[in-house]
Design brief:
Chain lengths: 342, 374, 328
């Protein structure tokens, strides 16, 4: 056990799984880096250094650099998964999904079903998401709702280094296509992470803290934001449950419902744009299944319906903050309590 | 100036580096006696009561529940009633300024960290404390436990003894490969660890399944076993709480596991979120579930204890004591009855299966007495 | 091109080639009839006229090799050795179909046999074939992959990207462009800018033009690409010119074709008739051998249709099954 960054946790998960299973291969743009160039091999290890060292250890047969050719290599990853490899492909920024989405949602996601259960596609696509890096509109989105929508895909969004390593190992061992979202701002976050390999199951939410007054469901980097809001609210005498779903598909709705039954109030924090995001999805399901438990309307804390702006002042206003989350909690606490169902 | 006392995050056990307030039992303005329990402190290993170091009035709750801070951080302020708000503010500011500066120093001498050593029986993780030339005490945890189970006990004995708490195979940071689960095989694992650490002979303290292992060591290598202190040991009867064993293995969610862990203690409040989370994280490690199932299938098949060691215990030539919490819901305290006269038996009211955590100070005294030959 | 090696196929192999081509033809003709009667749901895209291509290519392949197919996949499927009865049941949407009735004509597949599926997305197969080739190369199975694509697919970005990736990664994949003259209703002579073989050469792989009505020419043309691939020398390309008898989809009135075009092709260019003529004239097979196969094939197709019509539809739980291997 030692303090590791999110980046190191991901790297370690990949390395340990590649050591354990020779059919695990990595592919992506600059996952090694320097391919064909006169300088260093393994020059980059991905744009933010997450896969550094893996090409040196495993060689080019297991760590494949690609040209900039998503539709071909993501499709190849899908085809290879059908035929005995367990590829971990990197879609460098999820914003690039436009050039390879067919391979993901029409091919990989549907093989098992269309082929009547006679095939499986053990593919992992790792991808960076999220705002806060000043990377502007085309490199900062949270597009996990689109993947969550597609039957046949699993969507994993770790909220910390410990979570990242366990969920990525689980993803690699999972026999279905998994889209694994890494928030680009979190790579330097540090936490105690076991040195040994371990797994965290999909479809099980983590209760980050438990309180009585309100349930805050938060996704990915927003878990930290919710934690800060909860610290501030504790000083005001409001005790919050903070729930990290970990995976939006499968979604642990049961834990959310159990918590809402206890607190009666729900605030959902989602960094994805507000129309058709995970917050709306969870809201609808909770209202459908736990209407009587709700003492107040559900509040969703999300960015506005805009692309991500470049200027730091604007981008900071875009991202849900602890202050906005705390304000949403205060508003549901202040809502006049509904009459209990007769 | 009126006396002002800082309440700081206490250190439970040798390895603790941070903790949080789980709940305050006193509000600002209430008076506090020295030694009164004024808060619950939660760590990743246990939740335990915090006793006020001074008498006075609780003036500030500096730390709200739920926030993790390092050991030694300011959590509250107690002062005589005459102290003014300004004095309290100044005290706090002063403390915080010093705390930051001292912290980096403190961290380097801080937590004793577990170490690892390869042995012919596999990798062993252990936590050692105490003078290297003193008589050795080896602590052996039980099913699903680890060296942190001794966190309260070990520091108390480390002043006079060379204490070593280790992780059994399949547990903690030791090897997760568990080929042979029977007590003699586990005994050989402990002996291999002792060899690696240059411990010729030791007083053995074993808890639950670790108690059975200690008896087996006494049988296999009585010349290396100076005494046996057995806390709620397995091996003295066939009853075992099979629901606990099964629940421990199967629980995948925090709430399920919470209920299971609570059955270990007389006071369920000792089981906090962090502890449950810590056990869940342990169970997720590669190989752990398989190891636990192997152990459970061998030691507790069909919900009964398979290895019955009363005879082996009777044949052990050295000093023996058996310690049991009267409210033990895992292994019945009645198993302590009918042992040889020379065996000292101690029952604790208001303790469950974990007397070494629930009654650490008293258990430490009993061990020291037995080891001291009194 | 002198198909000398092809004629050295032995009697058994020639019979097998004929049987497969005949099976494809009778299968497609029967599906055409059944579809016209309203018995078959959804879309079908028929391969009749192109049999020599599927069979000429797939004769080189075993189960360690893969093919990625197109929306016009029945011919590829049969040539790759998939079960004909299972195929018919699948097209009729029955529970005992090759895909449990879950895929239908456009997604017909048998991955275990190396048939990675017909594909409803034009150009969808090429990247998949690259992936199968990558797996074969990494796992050292010695297998190769064939990416079938039509003239329509040849202009899709996925095709270009796959050809480049195959070259850069030196993959054991063969790109077979089945140019049947029309992508839906649009002529390939218009839609392909430049020359398809030159494109392939531009990507760094050898390419040849092949007459797809000539089984022996196709079989021969695949020889070097397969050898190259198995030797680890990378991808190759075939531009096969061929014709389809039926429309893009069943229901397509084909008004974009010249009057009498299809009749003339059937009369003058039919690949099965050519094969028949060639082998009987060379006296390697006898007319009676072929007639026997004709009868057996008709029986097989008849039986397949009868069984398919009598079979049950998938039961309601099948709607929800096999979305995932496990969930959660």
């Amino acid at each position: 056990m030692s303090k590791k960054s999110f980046r190191q946790a991901v790297n370690e998960a990949l390395r340990q799984e590649m050591e354990r299973d020779p059919t695990v291969v990595l592919m992506g743009e600059d996952v090694g880096g320097g391919m064909g160039a006169p300088g260093e091999d393994d020059a980059w290890g991905g744009p933010l250094g997450v896969t550094k060292g893996l090409m040196s250890q495993f060689g080019r047969e297991r760590v494949l650099d690609t040209p900039i050719t998503e539709s071909a290599f993501i499709g190849a990853a899908a085809g290879a998964a059908l035929r005995g490899l367990r590829p971990v492909a990197e879609l460098m920024f999820v914003d690039f999904m436009g050039v390879c989405f067919d391979q993901i949602f029409n091919q990989a996601a549907k093989f098992r079903y269309m082929f009547g259960g006679t095939a499986k596609t053990p593919l992992v696509i790792r991808t960076m998401y999220g705002a806060g890096f000043r990377a502007a509109s085309q490199h900062s989105q949270c597009l996990y709702p689109i993947f969550t929508h597609v039957p046949g895909l699993k969507v994993v969004i770790p909220s910390s280094p410990y979570e990242a390593k366990g969920l990525l190992i689980q993803a690699i061992r999972d026999d279905d296509p998994v889209i694994f979202f890494e928030h680009k701002v979190m790579y330097d976050d540090e936490e105690d992470v076991p040195d040994e390999p371990y797994t965290i199951p999909f479809g099980e939410a983590r209760f980050v803290r438990e309180g009585e007054d309100v349930t805050i469901v938060a996704i990915g980097r927003m878990v930290q934001m919710a934690g800060k809001a909860a610290d501030a609210l504790a000083k005001e005498g409001i005790s919050c449950t903070v729930l990290d779903p970990r995976t939006t598909s499968p979604l642990d709705l049961q834990s959310i419902l159990e918590s809402v039954e206890e607190t009666g109030r729900l605030v959902i924090v989602d960094e994805a744009n507000p129309r058709c995001n995970i917050a709306t999805d969870i809201s609808a399901q909770v209202v459908e299944q736990a209407f009587d438990a709700l003492k107040a309307p559900i509040r969703m804390v999300c960015p506005p319906h805009t692309p991500v702006p470049f200027s730091p002042a604007l981008e900071d206003a875009f991202i849900p903050s602890p202050e906005k989350i705390a304000a949403a909690v205060r508003s549901v606490m202040a809502s006049p309590t509904r009459q209990a169902a007769a | 100036m009126a006396k002002i006392t800082a309440l700081t995050m206490p250190k439970f056990g040798l390895a603790m580096t941070e903790g949080m307030v789980a709940a305050w039992h006193k509000q600002p303005g209430e008076s506090v006696r020295q030694g009164e329990e004024i808060a619950d402190i939660e760590t990743s290993k246990i939740t335990s009561a915090y006793e006020s170091p001074a008498a006075g009035v609780l003036r500030r709750q500096v730390l709200a529940p739920g926030e993790m801070v390092p050991v030694g951080a300011l959590i509250g302020v107690i002062a005589e009633p005459e102290a003014t708000e300004a004095e309290i503010d100044a005290f706090i500011a002063d403390f915080l300024a010093k705390f930051e500066a001292e912290r980096t120093e403190a961290e380097t001498e801080a937590a004793a960290n577990p170490e690892r050593v390869e042995t012919p029986a596999g990798l062993v993780q252990y936590l050692a404390a105490g003078p290297a030339d003193a008589p050795a005490i080896v602590f052996i945890h039980g099913f699903g436990g680890d060296l942190n189970n001794w966190m309260f006990l070990q520091p108390l004995l480390a002043e006079r003894f060379r204490t070593v708490a280790l992780d059994l195979p399949g547990h903690g940071g030791s090897t997760k490969a568990l080929k042979q689960p029977e007590p003699p095989a586990l005994a050989r694992f402990v002996l291999a660890a002792m060899d690696a650490l240059g411990i010729g002979a030791a007083h053995l303290v074993g808890h639950s399944m670790g108690g059975a292992v200690a008896i087996a060591i006494g049988q296999e290598a009585s010349d290396r076993t100076l005494s046996l202190s057995l806390i709620s040991p397995a091996g003295l009867g066939s009853e075992i709480n099979a629901d606990f064993i099964r629940g421990f293995i199967e629980a995948k969610r925090a709430r399920q596991l919470n209920a299971v862990l609570q059955s270990l203690f007389a006071d369920p409040a000792l089981v906090g979120r962090e502890m449950v989370e810590n056990v869940l994280r342990f169970k997720r490690l590669d190989g752990v579930e398989a190891a636990l199932r192997t152990l459970a299938d061998a030691h507790f098949p069909g919900g009964r204890q398979a290895y019955l060691l009363r005879e082996a215990l009777a044949r052990f030539p050295g000093p023996v004591q058996v310690i049991w919490g009267a409210q033990d819901r895992i292994i019945p305290p009645a198993h302590a009855e009918g042992l040889a006269e020379a065996v000292r038996v101690h029952r604790f009211e208001n303790a469950g299966h974990m007397a070494h955590m629930e009654r650490a100070a008293e258990v430490a005294r009993l061990i020291a007495e037995l080891a001291g030959g009194r | 091109m002198e198909p000398s090696r092809a004629l050295q196929l032995n009697r058994e192999e020639l019979l097998r080639a004929y049987r497969q081509m005949r099976t494809i033809r009778e299968f497609e003709e029967r599906v055409h009839t059944e579809f016209s009667s309203g018995a078959i749901p959804g879309f079908v895209h028929l391969y009749a006229g192109e049999e020599a291509v599927a069979v000429g290519v797939c004769m080189h392949l075993t189960e360690r090799d893969c093919i990625a197919s197109t929306h016009r996949g029945h011919g590829h499927c049969i040539a790759k050795g998939c079960d004909v009865k299972g195929m018919m049941a699948e097209i009729f949407g029955r529970a005992d179909g090759l895909c449990g009735g879950k895929g239908g004509s456009m997604h017909i597949a048998d991955v275990a046999k190396g048939m990675l599926g017909a594909n409803g997305i034009v150009g969808g197969g090429a990247p998949l074939a690259c992936g199968a080739a990558l797996a074969a190369k990494t796992l050292k199975t010695g297998g190769v992959a064939v990416a079938f694509g039509g003239d329509g697919a040849s202009n899709q970005g996925t095709t270009a990207e796959s050809m480049n990736l195959a070259t850069v990664w030196k993959l054991p994949v063969i790109f077979v462009l089945e140019d049947n003259g029309y992508a839906e209703s649009t002529a390939s002579s218009w839609s392909i800018g430049g020359d398809a073989v030159k494109r392939a050469e531009g990507f760094g792989m050898p390419g040849v033009r092949v007459d797809g009505h000539d089984f022996f020419a196709v079989y021969e043309a695949m020889h070097d690409p397969i050898a190259r691939a198995r030797a680890g020398e990378g991808p190759s390309f075939l531009h096969v010119k061929v014709n389809r008898y039926y429309g893009h989809f069943e229901g397509d009135a084909q008004t974009y074709r010249a009057p009498g075009e299809v009749q003339r092709l059937r009369a003058e260019m039919d690949c099965i008739e050519r094969f028949r003529k060639r082998v009987t004239e060379a006296k390697v097979l006898e007319e009676k051998d072929l007639a026997a196969i004709d009868r057996e094939v008709l029986e097989l197709i008849e039986e397949s249709v009868r069984a398919a019509k009598a079979a049950a539809y998938p039961p309601p739980p099948a709607l929800l099954s096999d979305v995932y291997v496990s969930y959660p």
